[in-house]
Design a protein that fits this description.
Layout lengths: L19 H4 L2 H5 L8 E7 L2 E10 L2 E8 L22 H4 L3 H4 L1 H19 L13 H12 L3 H14 L2 H13 L3 H4 L11 H38 L4 E6 L2 E7 H20 L4 E2 L9 H6 L5 H11 L3 E2 L10 H30 L2 E3 L18 H23 L10 H6 L2 H21 E3 L1 H9 L6 H10 L5 H9 L6 H9 L5 H9 L9 H6 L1 H9 L2 H9 L1
Parallel strand pairs: 6-7
Antiparallel strand pairs: 1-2, 2-3, 4-5, 8-9
């Protein structure tokens, strides 16, 4: 199922905001201001003007606002949005809007209400709702398929009277169906035996399912694929490792990238295994009203059939609300994915700082307002920053949502409206990292330079071979040669030639260089696709290749 609008495109003027501050609370926020001391501010938009004046007197701030007859209030746009997701970054996150916005919530509520009426028409004992004709069914399904932005705005208009968002959906559907003779006879069976949370919990689950399937997973997969390509392209590019920030046994650039591809794939797979759950058991989870109205119907079985028909996992043990435990599991899994990507961002940032990567410049771009030479790793910094913000939002959701007083309190309602923010900042971060990866250019000369200055890293293989052949105190001898001292190719060769080792072993050691001492790194990098495919059943990379 897919959210649709009449034009096929959602724009900011149609207000499908990711932040509930914009979608529900714009009116109250328009009147907010806090201006210290005596300030006269004049704002002009087109022919409209707004004067704001604040006066300070006796430790009391007094705010007065005068609006001329021909003026208008601040209106929401990318310049006035409180959330940067709905402002500066809208173009990068708007793909989430059909699912995670107020529009998306209303759409899925409409879908659930209609599907429930259709389900009732299929229960023999509910004789008051007879089976619908093909025409009536088509009419109802058409309300879902043709649901438009204008329809959503009509629901909001009704809500201004009812002050209840779910009831507004019910009234909207009754209005829409009055003209259809069959459905007009059973209008009161819209929302039959339902509490608002029966509708909401399924709508939220469908929002998350569609957002993950249609937007988040494809972007995660592109990210994994981009890192896999980076790994394979640089499988044989030797690189000095650093442990504790100090030179360590060499690796290859490709193998270090492969690690991230595999780690991200593993978490992506974990996220995909989280089952979106739903309940449909009435006011406190016992089917109280259902059983009184129709005692002979097996309502738990009907509820399970209904929930699973929507592609969700049925949760039979609930209060008024679905327990939200699956949401916590989902968000924590996304946080783990995000944490790995933070690690990637920081490593790439460091490699750029070391000169291992150059960044392809773009004509017209500016790196610093005062230092013209700068080409900053802004994409990875942007990614890291947004991942941190996403994790903060998702952590709060994970900790708060599973907790509800007794059979239900309302604290989850306002919190659930913020699901789009955590996903939005994650999506923005993934796209920033992808953009940064696309600008990377390996500087092999710089990588080689560091390796040529680090012959001491061969102390490890030398002392290991010495152990094999029984040379006494191998570790101590290499420690004396290398620790805190300048080590050169010549000094290493001289040490090896003085060892009592079989000629074959000695010859092998003399051939070693910091460039060649990389173990199985090349093979690990070259086989990263196989490793990722084993984790994900080949789905991720093959899907990405087909799309590309």
């Amino acid at each position: 199922m897919e959210a649709r609008v009449s034009s096929g495109v959602i724009t900011k003027t149609q207000s499908p905001f990711l932040s509930p501050l914009h979608a529900r609370k714009l009116q109250s926020l328009r009147n907010m201001s806090a201006l210290p001391n005596t300030i006269n501010i004049y704002h002009q938009f087109s022919n409209a003007s707004v004067y704001l004046r604040s006066t300070f007197s006796s430790r009391t701030h007094v705010f007065k606002q005068a609006i001329k007859d021909d003026s208008r209030e601040f209106e929401l746009s990318t310049l006035t949005a409180l959330s940067p997701l709905d402002g500066r970054y809208w173009g990068k996150v708007k793909d989430l809007a059909p699912y995670m916005s107020e529009y998306g919530l209303i759409y899925f509520r409409v879908l659930v209400e209609i599907k429930w009426l259709l389900m009732l028409s299929q229960i023999p004992e509910v004789i008051e709702v007879p089976s619908f004709s093909a025409e009536a069914q088509s009419y109802l399904l058409g309300l879902i398929d043709g649901f438009s932005m204008d329809d959503a705005l009509e629901v909001k208009k009704i809500e201004r009277v009812t002050n209840h968002d779910v009831k507004a959906v019910e009234y909207f559907l009754k209005q829409k169906c009055q003209s259809q003779p069959e459905i007009a006879k059973v209008l009161e069976f819209f929302h039959f035996a339902c509490t608002s949370e029966d509708i909401n919990n399924l709508a939220h689950a469908l929002m998350l399912k569609e957002a993950m399937t249609k937007v988040m997973f494809p972007t995660m997969d592109k990210l994994v694929e981009a890192i896999c390509k980076l790994a394979k392209a640089n499988a044989g590019v030797s690189m000095l490792s650093r442990t504790h920030g100090q030179p360590a046994s060499p690796t290859t650039l490709g193998k270090e990238m492969a690690i991230f591809a595999v780690r991200l794939s593993r978490e992506r797979q974990e996220i995909s295994q989280v089952e979106m759950m739903g309940k449909f058991a009435g006011a406190v989870g016992n089917y109280n009203a259902h059983i009184v109205a129709y005692p002979t119907v097996n309502w738990p079985q009907i509820a399970e059939q209904f929930v699973t028909s929507l592609g969700l996992k049925f949760n039979p043990y609930v209060t008024q609300i679905e327990t939200h435990d699956y949401m916590a599991k989902l968000y924590y899994a996304i946080i783990r994915f995000n944490n790995i990507l933070i690690d990637f961002d920081r490593d790439i940032w460091g490699y750029i700082s070391l000169g291992y990567f150059k960044q392809i410049t773009k004509a017209g771009e500016i790196g610093s307002s005062t230092m013209p030479h700068k080409v900053n790793p802004i994409d990875f910094e942007n990614s890291e920053g947004n991942l941190g913000k996403a994790n903060e939002d998702l952590t709060y959701l994970s900790m708060k949502l599973p907790i509800s007083r007794w059979q239900r309190d309302l604290t989850d309602s306002t919190v659930l409206r913020n699901m789009g923010a955590g996903l939005g900042h994650s999506l923005l971060a993934y796209k920033s990292a992808l953009q940064g990866i696309g600008k990377l250019q390996v500087n092999e000369a710089r990588l080689s330079e560091d390796l040529n200055q680090a012959w001491e890293v061969l102390a490890e293989p030398i002392q290991t071979v010495m152990r094999r052949y029984g040379v006494p105190e191998p570790y101590e001898k290499l420690k004396e040669l290398t620790r805190g001292r300048a080590v050169t190719k010549e000094s290493i060769r001289e040490f090896i030639e003085g060892l009592e080792l079989p000629e074959e072993a000695k010859t092998h050691l003399l051939k070693l260089t910091p460039h060649s001492y990389v173990g199985a790194a090349v093979e690990l990098a070259n086989t990263v696709d196989s490793a990722v495919n084993v984790i994900n059943g080949s789905e991720v990379l093959e899907t990405c290749r087909r799309k590309n």
